[in-house]
Specification:
alpha+beta, six-stranded mixed sheet, 136 residues
C-alpha cells in the first residue's frame, strides 16, 4: 500500500512594526507624551512575509508609513507569537521623536485618543515592556 504524501501547509509570517512616537517636551505623566502609529483601519502596520527576508518587509512598512530614513531607525525585536496553526507574527518596535509630518500614512494616536480603539492586549504589553514609558 502506498502512503499518501501529505502536503504540509506553509506557515505564513506576519511582520509587524510598532512605531512609538515620543514627545519629549511633555511630562512623563502626560497622556499625550507617547503615541502609537495605526494605519487607516486603526491597526498596527504589518505585512506578510512572502519570499522576502523580514528586513526587506520592515523597510517596506517603514517606507509606506514614515518620513524617517529606514536606516536611521533603531528597530528592536519585541516579540513572536503564533496567531493560529498556520500563521505566526514577529513584532519589531521603534521609537521616533515627535516631528511635524513624520508619518506618510496612518495616524499617531496618544493614550487619550486610543480610548475608543480596541488595541490587542499583546501589543499593549510589548509597548509597555519595550516602549519609553508605561502605556495604558
Amino acid at each position: 500500500m502506498k502512503a499518501k504524501k501529505q502536503k504540509r501547509a506553509e506557515m505564513k509570517v506576519k511582520v509587524t512594526l510598532l512605531v512609538i512616537c515620543q514627545d519629549s517636551s511633555m511630562a512623563d505623566s502626560d497622556m499625550r507624551r507617547i503615541s502609537i502609529l495605526l494605519d487607516d483601519s486603526q491597526n498596527i502596520p504589518s505585512k506578510y512575509l512572502i519570499g522576502d527576508d523580514e528586513g526587506r518587509v520592515l523597510r517596506e512598512i517603514s517606507n509606506s508609513y514614515l518620513n524617517f530614513s529606514y536606516d536611521w531607525l533603531i528597530k528592536n525585536l519585541a516579540g513572536f507569537r503564533c496567531l493560529d496553526k498556520q500563521t505566526c507574527e514577529v513584532c519589531y518596535i521603534t521609537v521616533v521623536p515627535k516631528m511635524q509630518d513624520s508619518n506618510k500614512s496612518g495616524k499617531f494616536y496618544n493614550q487619550t485618543e486610543l480610548e475608543g480603539i480596541e488595541l490587542d492586549s499583546y501589543y499593549e504589553q510589548l509597548i509597555s515592556k519595550f516602549g519609553t514609558s508605561r502605556f495604558r
